[in-house]
Amino acid sequence: MMIEGQTNVRSLRFGPGAVDRLGKELGRFVVTTMDVPWRLAQPRLGAVPVAVLFVENMEVETLDRQVAGAPEADTVLALGGGQAIDLGKYLAWKRGLRLVTVPTILSVDAFVTPAAGVRRGHRVEYVGQTSPDPLVIDCDLIRTAPAELNIAGVGDLLSIHTACRDWELAARAGRSEFPFRPEDVARARGILADTMARAAEIRACSDEGLRAIVEGYLRVNTICLPAGHYRVEEGSEHYVFYELEERLRRPFIHGWIVGLGVHLMSRLQENRHEEAVAFMDAVGLRYQPADLGIRREDLSACLLNLRRYVSGRSDLWYTVIHERDLTPEWIEAALATLKF
Ligand SMILES: [Zn+2]
Question: Alpha-carbon distance 241 to 209, whole Å?
């Protein structure tokens, strides 16, 4: 797989069996992982690590204690889901070690982003700078994860749909925080179109479907890393999620909650809402409040509070939420189209 342009991924291996005997190339290596992915991958690595660090939680104090206790090593092998990979990034960054990343699930994009997501209190912060070398995508390993969680990986590509419109709205209102680049918007929409064209493959989690998600993420990075921001793939759809997360104080499957955000905000934007929903249904993305365990009264309160919430956070960008009123009538009509 060749990706034109700059990404933080130095090299990539893709295919069934890509993880076999990988351990032989790593020198002394420390693994960051969780129970299930480690049990699956350990017999295939062909070498024994000097230590295995299991994810406890993502609080920065915990991570610093784990880093301080880790032995000397050449390489960090980050193996698992988002948290195992973030722990690996954090360790590689703090110690200045080579990072090899093996995602075992595609539900979050931690495996292609340079910074590690850590927690300070209730907020997630992104720290450090890492480049996997290589990023290893073993399709067989990834297919051991539940299909609906791998399909969740399209959430952060689908968000291009609403995020690009938000950026256009901001530019038109003279409120864009960054120089508006129509060529970036056009390229991002190309990535989304290519993803949407492979809905059946993604639904089936075939090699081609998994490749479509990984390739989509890498291509997004070729836009966002040089630009220094994620404006083309993050906007109002993510802000719905931020409000809900603070309101309900619990985690969500990222791609699912982003899907719910795309459902609501594409409607508010009057932006090809039916097309976005049809894609989510075709690909099998779960986005219904019933899937996410969100009650009607909580989602209603979130939407009523949304403009106040984004206005109160100076780190959030100008989006449709600033210019279209989320009236009780609009909310009522929007929620009537969802399942609780
Ligand atoms: Zn996201």
Answer: 26
